[in-house]
Amino acid sequence: MSKILVTGGLGYIGSHTVVELINAGYEPVIVDDLSNSNIKILDQITKITGKKPVFHQLDLCDVNGVMSLATAEHDIEGIIHFAAFKAVGESVKLPLKYYRNNIFSLINLLDAYYGKPVNFVFSSSCTVYGQPDHLPVNESAPVKPAQSPYGNTKQIAEEILSDMVASGTNYKVISLRYFNPVGAHDTALIGELPIGVPQNLVPFITQTAIGKREKITVFGDDYNTPDGSCVRDYIHVVDLAKAHVAALKLMSGNDFEGYDVFNIGTGKGNSVLEIIAAFEQTTGEKLNYEIGPRRGGDVEQVWGDVSKSEKQLHWSAGLGIDTMMSSAWEWEKYLSNNPL
User: Fold this and answer.
1) Section 64-89 average pLDDT
2) CA 203 to CA 296: how far, in whole Å?
3) Exposure pattern of 77-95 as b/e (b: 16+ CB <10 Å)?
4) Is 113 a known active-site residue?
5) How confident is the model at residue 87 (pLDDT cuts 50, 70, 90)?
6) Model's pTM, two decimal places?
7) Domains of the chain with CATH codes
8) 68: three-class secondary structure by DSSP
9) Which of 128, 165, 224, 281 is the most exposed place for a label (fewest CB within 10 A)?
């Protein structure tokens, strides 16, 4: 059984990936500093899978702590690195917070396992494309200046990983460029769990529907899109989690060497207003929303060409918008009755 280190493993995408790793026969070891997650998610993972993963509470910016972790967990075969701050709007306001955390944590982790034959999956983002010239955007599209410090940390991290592999280390590395993960596990035991005011659309929708928030603000209705609101490629978080298992499997074969990148999305774009309408139609809940000014750091529209992932990762998204919205709503209702 391969042991896989999962940083940020109690977070939104991380927790779903831990479940999929266990389902696929891997042994995940979770590292999380709990700055944007909840220790009770460990129990939720255990309820879903029947297995309780090893857990280390650690800030990956702590050099000595990361080195001690690598000594304790010396026999891992893979790393999936989620641990990062991820709010676009906050990164515009607090850029140093994002550069310090997202870059230092990666470097410390790579240093700690340097020289060991490790398969490394990096949690990247479609933000590396900026506003693409052509849609759908594929992996060969030029990386344009990032629209936010968050996006820039993903660009810098990809460059670090590519340079490191080119230098002749034993690492194999895949960067997965996510589009917009939404939804929750079909058990409703794990899902997106924002601390404080949500920075992403769907948890704001569900919190508004259940009465935690007064209304939703749609940031701009004057973009060059069919209804004026921003367009994104929304992907169910369980589909996204399964892509990490597919990446590990690809790197475990003899045919993969070096470094590669893959888009992880559905290949289709939906606007903010379309997502609001889909939630209302799927759940029967009416939403209170208003149109506000554009938000700094947002790109107008982006969705991905996922043909490379389908052909080489043997992965594709299978869950649609209705399932994304209904599962997110079931998770929100679960939380209202079972606060974590």
Assistant:
1) 95
2) 20
3) bbbbbbbbbbbbebbbeee
4) no
5) confident
6) 0.96
7) 3-183+235-265 (3.40.50.720)
8) helix
9) 224
